[in-house]
Amino acid sequence: MALALLTAVAACVDATSYLRFHVFPANMTGNTVLLAVGVGAGNSGLDPLRSATALGGFVAGAVAGGVTRAACGSEVRFRATAWMTESAVLAAAAALWASGWTAGARAFPVIALLSATMGLQSATVTQLGLGVSTTYLTGTWTAVSSFVGRRTRERACEESDQHRLRRQVGVLSCYFLAAVAASVVMKWAS
Predict the structure, then answer these.
(1) How far apart are CA 39 and CA 58, in angstroms?
(2) Which of 184, 141, 186, 181 has the alpha carbon at shortest distance from 165?
(3) Predicted local distance difference test score (pLDDT) of residue 152
(4) Range of the domain at 97
């Protein structure tokens, strides 16, 4: 259940942030491309700066996840600390968003906070060794696709592989559905 909730949060954050700011707080491949295109095209506007802010916030959050893991010791304490921190930072970003911090340069703190939470979430899920990501899905798509390809050649499938595949398909489905829901809400609220 926690994995589904984290995945839904990441999808909603990415969908709403892309629609509002044209950045992906949880998807650094997209931001790297957006930053590179902005620099390569000579864009001097806010677009490349938003992408750079998202990248920096994500990295800061992921570093914080590593520091938190090292400081907490037990897995239970680490999970609780990381997820309480993520919730608090998301609440701060939501408060800024709700108070109108979404236009021009005022959007940068919101982008940084959202990206930091996604970096923290990514680091947390990675360090827990769940074999799936809740924020960046290229590896999950690759794992599911290659499993299907392998499965067409091999009839036998270990139970652990089946469990991992169900988890990965669940993450992909949850992410997609949550992003659709967030997009519908954003369109409705506009």
Answers:
(1) 20
(2) 141
(3) 58
(4) 2-189
